[in-house]
Amino acid sequence: MKRKSVRPVVKAYRKAVSAFFRKARSMVRRGYVVNTVLPKEPKKITEASVRRIKKISSNLYKKSSYVTEEGKVISGEKGRKYERSRAAKKAAETRKRH
Fold first, then answer.
1. Residue 92 is inside which H or E element, if any?
2. DSSP code of 83?
3. What residues contact residue 17 under an 8 Å CB cut-off, 6+ apart?
4. From CA 31, how far away is CA 50, in angstroms rounded?
5. 98 residues of the chain, pLDDT tens digit each
6. Which of 15, 17, 22, 31 lies 20 to 30 Å from 39, alpha-carbon distance?
């Protein structure tokens, strides 16, 4: 019996969902609190369903919060700036040592 092929839209939807969860897990490991939930998978997956997931995924920093080493909770976007500034300071220290 021949296997049924998966429609390209369904494939794109699944890819977008897995990318969302991959990004969320990465953020949680770095100290973010992600409280965004995805909508239930629709019965019929369309291009709009894929766009909806991608839109939610792109706004993830805005919807989350960040916990600093001191335990202070700040917004996700400020947390991103905090993270980048710490990385820049660390790089400057490394350059200074070498």
1. helix 76-97
2. H
3. 38, 41, 53
4. 28
5. 778 888 889 999 999 999 999 999 999 999 999 988 888 989 999 999 999 999 999 989 999 999 988 889 999 999 999 999 999 999 999 999 88
6. 31
Largest Cα separation within the chain, whole Å, is: 66
For residue 71, give the amino acid letter: G
Query: End-to-end CA distance of the chain, in Å?
Result: 64
Rounded Cα distance between 4 and 38, Å, is: 27
- The pairing of beta strand 32-33 with beta strand 73-75: unpaired
Could you tell me which of 71, 59, 50, 70 has the C-alpha nearest to residue 27? 59
Burial classification of residue 66, based on how many CB atoms lie within 10 Å of its CB (0-12 exposed, 13-18 middle, 19 or more buried): buried
In angstroms, rounded to a whole number, what is the distance separating the alpha carbons of residues 78 and 62?
Answer: 9
**Residue whose entry in the numeric block shows the structure tokens 């766009």:** 51
pTM for this structure?
0.82
